[in-house]
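Quiz preparation item.
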């Protein structure tokens, strides 16, 4: 398996470093043959060279089976990075160009991890968000009229194509059939977003007919935020458009123990291009270089990388290595009992070693 590694900025290289040690251990335990190649794409690289990510770079990355990404982004108020040059230029460019139309974000409270939700346990918080990843407000459709004048007009358009919505819904229904509860909730805001919402809702009901074994529900996104806090056990699989998915998955990370644990995969489920696996957290410049960042989110994303890519490429050793990583993360997390995952008190490498021991 050929893995492209974009360690990125801030804590990215630290959490990726720990994850690559876990990869080595998991691969040798499962007989997985792999090679990694480092790529420098990051805010730091841009500031040094003026280069973000070219079409040639994307073509090169296509030659890999998967991409592991730490975090990209510099200081929030750096004027040289204004306008989302890194976010749009690296993350979104890769998601769009590689047609990674699913952003898979598990929200699972592992044993021993503390949730800020009083009285909720691992049994109550165990769902997966299927976030559409190539449409919606992320298309960059819009613009200014009379910019800089008192009559300035800004527009930003939400895109929902039947094709894009339906392929995302089918992925979510398929995923729901693999889970014990077989329950899928569509999250939108159909009472206000009456065009995009209707396309989603109509497609949801039509696709549901092909999945009689999956129980369905619909929640408005504002109500979903409330239920995620008051009764997270309502959810098994959530399917959600890009922008709302961005927002509710930060909430999901928070209820599952924080950004230190939240993993994600940007998937091209058809295998037409590599997936990109990354922690939900960013580059955290405030703690960069201190080696205190928790690598669990990246290690868990690595496990997802191995399982998903292994499944698509029919590589059993990779799937097995990924299952080992997932199990080792679960076995390690009770050691964080009573601690904040974001500031666990363990050094980054120490957590990596704990996972390798469990593995
Ligand atoms: C995420 C991030 C990105 C997004 C940003 C950095 C562009 O918030 O992965 O959730 O909005 O998708
Ligand atoms: Mg986000």
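Solution:
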């Amino acid at each position: 398996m050929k893995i492209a590694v974009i360690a990125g900025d801030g804590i990215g290289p630290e959490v990726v470093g720990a994850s690559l040690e876990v990869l080595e251990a998991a691969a040798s335990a499962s007989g997985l043959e792999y090679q990694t190649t480092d790529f420098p794409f990051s805010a730091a690289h841009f500031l040094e060279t003026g280069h973000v990510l070219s079409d040639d770079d994307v073509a090169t990355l296509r030659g890999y089976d998967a991409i592991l990404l730490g975090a990209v982004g510099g200081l929030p108020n750096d004027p040289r990075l204004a306008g989302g040059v890194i976010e749009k230029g690296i993350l979104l460019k890769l998601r769009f160009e590689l047609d990674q139309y699913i952003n898979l974000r598990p929200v699972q409270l592992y044993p021993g991890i503390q949730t800020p939700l009083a009285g909720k346990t691992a049994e109550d918080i165990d769902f997966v968000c299927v976030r559409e990843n190539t449409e919606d407000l992320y298309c960059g459709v819009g613009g200014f009229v009379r910019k800089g004048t008192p009559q300035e007009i800004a527009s930003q358009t939400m895109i929902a194509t039947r094709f894009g919505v339906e392929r995302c819904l089918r992925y979510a229904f398929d995923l729901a059939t693999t889970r014990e509860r077989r329950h899928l909730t569509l999250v939108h805001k159909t009472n206000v977003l009456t065009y995009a919402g209707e396309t989603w809702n109509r497609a949801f009901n039509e696709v549901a007919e092909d999945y009689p074994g999956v129980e369905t529900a619909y929640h408005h996104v504002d109500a979903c935020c409330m239920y995620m806090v008051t009764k997270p056990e309502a959810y098994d699989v959530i399917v959600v458009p890009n922008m709302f998915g961005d927002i509710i998955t930060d909430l999901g990370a928070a209820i599952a123990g924080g950004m230190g644990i939240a993993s994600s995969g940007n998937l091209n489920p058809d295998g037409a291009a590599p997936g990109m696996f990354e922690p939900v957290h960013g580059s955290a410049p405030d703690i960069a270089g201190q080696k205190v960042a928790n690598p669990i989110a990246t290690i868990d994303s690595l496990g997802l990388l191995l399982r998903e890519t292994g499944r698509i490429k029919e590589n059993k050793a990779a799937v097995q290595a990924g299952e080992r990583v997932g199990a080792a993360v679960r076995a390690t997390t009770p050691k964080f009992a009573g601690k904040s995952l974001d500031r666990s008190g363990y050094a980054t490498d120490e957590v990596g070693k704990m996972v390798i021991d469990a593995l």
